[in-house]
Amino acid sequence: MKLKHYFVLLALCIVLLAGAALYSAFNTNSTLFYAIEGFTIVLLCYLGYFYRKTIRPYDTLIGGMELVKDLDLTTRLAPSGQHETDLIVRTFNDLLTRLRSEHLTLEEQYSFLSLLIEASPMGIVQCDIDGKTTSMNPAAREMLSPSIEEAMKALPMGQSTTVRLTGGPQLFRISHLSFPDRGFQHPFFLIEPLTAEVRQAEKAAYERIIRMIAHEVNNSVAGIVNLIDSEPAAADRLKALSAFVTRFAEVVKIPKPQLQLCDLSEEVEACQPFLENLCAGKPVRLEFCLTDEASPVHLDTVLFQQVLINIVKNAVESIGNNEGHITVTTTPYQLVVADNGRGIPAEVAQHLFTPFYSTKPQGQGLGLLLIRDILTAHGCTFSLLTDPDDHLTRFTIRFVTK
Fold it and tell me: What's the CA gap between 370 and 127, in Å, rounded?
């Protein structure tokens, strides 16, 4: 029961008692009757005054609490004229002002944080307390792949791991973290692309080693060849060793791409004689499926031809002495070289584009390294995978469209 209901009940009881007293005094003493009647009138006036000064301000405060409940922090309570109530009203209005200020500050911070998350180059995946994904930013949507999702499921809270995407050079660090929210620890995943940093570190390391080895070997070989010209076999062996080291040195001498706007299909067509020569004398059928749709891309034509020749050469070697076919396909801003060679096992696909990694008996791991560095310098994204459905191995290159 509300307080005003108690007040109405009290007023009703007083009126009934006053009525009973008036009824008794009416038949016995006229003076007492008038006195009781006057007292009753004064009492009723006082009750009305008490209601206006106490109960009505109380209702106003209740209305103010409802405003706070509905998050209406702009409305203020008006003074009632009653000293004690006005103290409460002033305190209440001050609290509303502070709440509004803090609420606006939190909203601004939340908006700023949301903008940072949306614009962050790192992937952020938020989860509920049960570990189910609730939201992710655009960077996370671009990075997410089956390999990353599998790593996220197996990663304990508070730990990090690195994942290299199958068939590509991309490397990511995944961290499983949490933040406090209303007394609970809400988990989230942070996905950081490490490809550029790792590639730069790898490149700096192998460039330094290769230059040192090439310098020392070539200097030594040059001196020894002059001493043993009378032994042709030994001289030839040393020259072969020099050429071997020189091939490594060439990897670190890739020039900066001189980009120019070219049509992708026309550049592939210009390289066709070189590619056909790679298949000459082998049971390999080379096909070209070039789009007629204009596909302008920025290329260094010399470096692009070197990449395409290396890709087709690897495809020919994968087919070996078996009958096979290689298809070079262009679509707008994309090139795909597919072959039906022996394919790439899953355990090998994870190590592709790693410096000096090779599955060939005499391989040096330079071909894919050269391709990786040239395509990266062009700003391309690329992958090398064997499709488990049709068993074709595809090298896919996606060119920058800007």
Answer: 40
Which pLDDT score, from 0 to 100, does residue 359 have?
63
Please say whether the beta carbons of 156 and 176 come within 8 A.
yes
Task: Report whether 264 contacts 333 (CB < 8 A).
Answer: yes
> Which residues does 103 contact at the CB level (< 8 Å), separation at least 6?
71, 73
**What confidence tens digit (pLDDT) does each residue in 10-58 have?**
677 777 776 666 666 666 666 666 676 677 777 777 777 776 666 666 6
Rounded to 5 degrees, φ, ψ at 325 are -145, 150
For 4, 45, 60, 81, the CA distances from 48, given in Å and listed in that order, are 12, 5, 17, 15
Between CA 368 and CA 399 the distance in angstroms is 18
DSSP E strands, 165-280: 171-181, 184-193, 260-263
CB 315 within 8 A of CB 337: yes
What does the alpha-carbon distance between residue 310 and residue 367 come to, in Å, rounded to a whole number? 6
Which residues are bridge partners to 336 per DSSP? Answer: 329, 396
Other beta carbons less than 10 A from residue 192's beta carbon: 17
Q: Which residues contact 104 (CB under 8 A, 6 or more apart)?
A: none
Q: Please name every residue paired with 285 in a beta bridge, in sequence order, or none if there are none.
A: 325
Asked if residue 270 has pLDDT above 70, the reply is yes
Q: 154-171 as b/e, with b when 16 or more CB fall inside 10 Å?
A: ebeeeeeeebbbbbbbbb
Q: Which strand (E) or helix (H) includes residue 288?
A: strand 284-290
> What are the backbone angles phi and psi of residue 339, rounded to the nearest 5°?
-140, 160
pLDDT above 70: residue 7: no
pTM: 0.53
Q: Name the amino acid, one letter, at 202.
A: E
338's enclosing H/E stretch is: strand 334-339
| Partner residues linked to 164 by β-bridges | 171
